[in-house]
């Protein structure tokens, strides 16, 4: 009987082992023959989880278009049984949980396809996961004894399926590598971004997008030791892997440097054995904190980017500049090999990875390495802006506390860029670097990153006080909080009687949300264009007035006004008189009714998909206000008279009849809002006041200077030309912009706004328009890289302005006020342009 039972058990186990299928077997085609839709990727990993006891699936959310977001986890049977202990032990290493860890298992997280049209990554993810999980792979069993492998096969399923569906429609039956074939020319906006055209690989720290926010929550549950992010680059490039290029942030630890070298050597040996070309230490740096390699780096992991030549344009196969066909199969194998290398080196160095991870958090939280150790954020007068910043800190697990009443402090004043004395109150916040998230705190608050090399892959300044429009100080010493932060419960508005007017503030994004909700509810709101005092309180220009007069037909008027204010946690005050103590009475013509605008935004070919996405996201996910999307190449067919506001994202797409049509609409009373590159469509044209230069002499002088630069560049060595080119570029330079507080475009923003300059565009002051935001002196430069040839041109330039055309107007936003949706302070400028400027 025992022999029969043993035979039965053996057959059962054998049958169980045979049930697992490779990706080729499960999908019914070989890797590289086609792109796999996301739902089939989900099916495959579900198949492995259902047939392998050491594989788990963890769903962590869904994309905007409701596709599942998940990771697959594989390790040894023993580790899987002890998985939660391994996870919590690791959090103890960071100090985010109390206690001492009892395990030393390395955690290796590999992320694929964060850029949707770099779709080779998901195919490689399936191949790599299968090789590691395959129960018949004896080598993989050794790898899994001391590591947990977490694989996110597709971090951007909406972008991936946008690309996959399009490509499968366009691909030829017979491989067509001709670069001119339609399958090698993605239409706007391409598959790279997510649903809202956002670049998820630049959203890690800011977490503006649903996919990122959900992923970071899971990330914080694990805090991996290694994080590998898989990408593709141009068709004519070979393969890139770590070590990274300079500049590398000074906070990257010696061991993080060393492990990148260990990984690079191991991967190079595999590529050399196959005669595959690659490069390291070029192009892909470690500075900007919101990448899939830097964010893990600043959280103690070894963050690494992988880049294979090909990208969305390559499809199933395309000729490169050498005439060689770069195939999907080749790209998959190369990324798969880089992935297996990461698994190998993690296993070989598992114990040390855990030890160094522990040391990273212990040393940094007790002895921060950067210049500034503590940061004070002033809370007086801007509670809603401060609340928005604290929400971001919470997402990043950065701790903070109340400052208390202190005097005699000294630190760098972000507003002036100089050292200054200051005091604190019990409304101010202290964030110091003596905490588990020490490095991330220092990086996000640092006024300026130290640059080893000025040639960078992204922006060089991102300091949170500037982004949120808050007064703050950076201290070189430790300053502990006086007491722990406790969020006070919002004191809901309870209004008795029937006030003549409700008064609401206007200085933060949430106030624009409130206004949008009022207008959608059919409630008439007004804006005070002058400061005023009433009932002993002072109010700034831009304050919202919701008056009974004009809303008497609205059912449940008082309840709707108050309920919406409570929803957004906005404190209302009331008045039973229109007679003010100072300023303009509520019946004045300078207290303007805000019309609920019909808004359209131009998208499509010629427009920046990223800037379009920022605008689209702002309306749908932040304002929750309706917007119509118009295709740029179809403007001639639309009836523009239906719209009050037309938003023109960055780009160059208005010409000929379309330009004339838009200008006829403006002159008839429309309001156009031009952002960044689209501002140039109105520059130096007859009938427009916008110009790069004040005088013809200035224009000739600049042309002469440009010619000199070009001459120097021509005489420079070939290798120096890229470095010469950055002398006329900006990469996230922060300038103080003087705002005309009397103009509606600046309401609520404050006297000084800090812009993030990412372009070299310069415009002279408007002579017949309104210069709302200006750089009047180079003393207004604060931090971040700007080329030495470009910087002088910013002197006496217009950044935000408005020009009248007929009965309408054009609002010029030379710098993008909503960059990547994380530059919070600029969103109020955009809201003013949409709702308040009349």
Automatic annotation (TrEMBL):
Signal sequence annotation: 1-19
Family note: Belongs to the peptidase M14 family.
Pfam families: Peptidase_M14 (PF00246)
InterPro entries referenced in this protein's UniProt entry, alphabetically: Class_I_gatase-like, Peptidase_M14
Gene3D superfamilies the record matches: 3.40.50.880, Zn peptidases
Organism: Belliella alkalica
Keyword line: Hydrolase, Metalloprotease, Protease, Signal, Zinc
Keyword rRNA-binding applies: no
Annotated protein name in UniProt: M14 family metallopeptidase
